[in-house]
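Margin note: ligand = adenosine monophosphate.
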Amino acid sequence: MSFTNLGLSKPLLKAIEEQGYETPSPIQLQAIPVVIEGKDVLAAAQTGTGKTAGFTLPLLEKLTQTKPNMQKKQIRALVLTPTRELAAQVAESIKTYGKYLPYTSTVIFGGVGINPQLATIRKGVDIVIATPGRLLDIAGQQGIDFSALECLILDEADRMLDMGFIHDIKKLMKLMPDKRQTLLFSATFSPEIKTLAEGLLNDPVLVEVSRENTTADQIKQVVHFVDKRRKRELLSQLIKIKKWRQVLVFTRTKHGANKLTKELEESGISAAAIHGNKSQGARTKALAAFKANEIRVLVATDIAARGIDIDQLPHVVNYELPNVPEDYVHRIGRTGRAGQSGEAVSLVCIDEHELLKNIEKFIKFKIPKVDIPAFRPDPNIQAEPIQNGRGKGKGGKNSRNEPHSSKDGAKSNKNKRNRNRNKKDKK
Ligand code: AMP
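Resulting structure:
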């Protein structure tokens, strides 16, 4: 993943290149597109994660996208920081990344004369980086007009609370327009931060990057329990809501890969399948389209995926868990490479609980389970056996008919089902 896919325009890309940054850090990957989209963001990120570029880059991009209607130059963006050092650092970043853009900025903090600061603001600047106390003093002297403010960023909000700035922040907030974008960055999500966020942010996107994610363990793994027949719907929603751009999705069978590809296409998500029944030409073409971002989803079986050269994918989805735990490791190893963050999402139905247990035993890690209320499994559905060419999963009793044949079913029904599939495929 490079910076070019995040929605940043040329002047910013040029400045990034000059800094020698080759790939966005995990926080940048997550935050930049959502900030550009105009969403409020609540981000848990510590120093050293690249968080400053994570908000300054999209902030600068957003300023290029709106044409303010103002008589004189008014402040369009405000960054609040707990200390003057941090304010100076953020200002430096804004200067560095905004080198090829026309925006002006200034730093405001206490302990130095107020008059030069008042004079600078009076002349007009686009971006102010400030500590809350001094900014409030300036506001108290009618020295600053926030009426054109488009974006407010609170950096290291937890430290600002620890330092007792909460009242100053609240007073400043009253002077700002309600219609604005707000980003809150904090090293932790304490109850106090959550309360502050509730009052400040409007339907924020949560962005969380822990230190571990940025070092050895780059891959964030998650399991969503869901009924088999609702997996496709959940996958489409995840892709659309989370705005995933490049997703590698694994199915157990070739038929499953074809069926899912067709269904995704029908739901308006561009997809292609690669598996053993596809010609080399078709596979190469699908892979090239995927790499060029012309298709969003590549659906693959384990064997087909082994031979393909794709690195640094942000998202891998186990639409069906593999029967062999080692395959799980190969699959998720497709993401989070070379210093990149990655996310491996597994959609697990009742038939696959045993497979999940085996995988967790093999990787010596309990994968976090994230409940999606709208897709909570129906408790009345019972497990069915899983069977395909590579190893056997231990499902429960085959006590009911499979409502959705996205993969191979029990042996006794296999031929019949294949005949039905062939009929369907010919339609
Ligand atoms: P921060 O977490 O914002 O304090 O940034 C930590 C350091 O990482 C700063 O020195 C940045 O210049 C640097 N940095 C930020 N983004 C990247 C990137 N994508 N690649 C390499 N270095 C970066």
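Confidence is low (pLDDT under 50) at residues 211-216, 389-427.
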